[in-house]
Amino acid sequence: MIKKGIFYSTILLTVAFISSGFKPYTPQIDAGFGVDENEELQYVFPSQNNIDYVNLKVPYTGRYFIGYKEAIAHKESQGKYRRINTLGYLGKYQFGVGTLKSIGIHDSLGFLNNPKLQEKAFVTLLSKNKYELRHYIKYFEGKVVDGVKITESGILAAAHLGGTGSVKRFLNTNGERKMKDDYGTSVRTYLRDFGGFDTKAIQPVKNAQVE
Residue 149: enclosing H or E segment and its boundaries? Predict the structure, then answer.
């Protein structure tokens, strides 16, 4: 019995000794990582609330060229490559058959089913219009016409809507000629809504054709 008592006593003393080497850990939180209850949390995405995304700026969109072309596409067709409107305008950027022919595209069905061709056509038309409107861009850029600050991207977007002639007439009359398309959308609206984008990389090309 004495031996068993010594054995169990030894175990208890050993456990007690080992346990005495461990102290409860109290985590120390650096004040720099704390968030005051009045501070606003900035990183809220993903979110199920659509309003959270209204002013979300995604890299390479915004005022960059990709943002410009996608904004126009959304306005024209909600970005749908196979869209045909009631007036027969085709594709993501809503080209008329005559406009397509002017940049070297004669197969409208093939155009409608070819997203890459539609993207090329959009850039080609911008190049063609930029050449035709180069003097207007140089003279009017930065000026205010009918309450709208004129920019290169706005001029090119307006030309996409109503043709270069409509843009010229609007600017030549200081905005008194209210040029509109068949759906009632005005040149002024495109000058305003698509102004301030980066279109400097678009090269002006006389009679530009899709390659």
Answer: strand 148-149
In the chain, what percentage of residues exceed pLDDT 90? Answer: 64
Which of residues 75 and 44 earns the better pLDDT score? 75
CA of 176: how far to CAs of 20, 136, 166, 189, 193, in Å? Answer: 91, 17, 12, 14, 19
Tokens of 124: 């080609």
| Burial of 83: CB neighbours in 10 Å, binned 0-12, 13-18, 19+ | middle
Residues found in the chain? 211
Instruction: Give yes or no for a contact between 151 and 195, defined as CB atoms under 8 angstroms apart.
Output: yes
Tell me the three state secondary structure of residue 182. Answer: coil
Mean local confidence (pLDDT), 153-161: 96
Mean pLDDT value across the chain: 80
Phi-psi region of 209 (alpha: psi -120 to 50; beta: other; left: phi over 0): beta
| Cis, bond preceding 46 (omega within 30 deg of 0) | yes
Which amino acid, 94?
Q
Contact yes or no for 187/174 (Cβ under 8 A): no
Cα angle value 134/115/181 (rounded, 5°): 50
**What pTM did the predictor assign?**
0.70
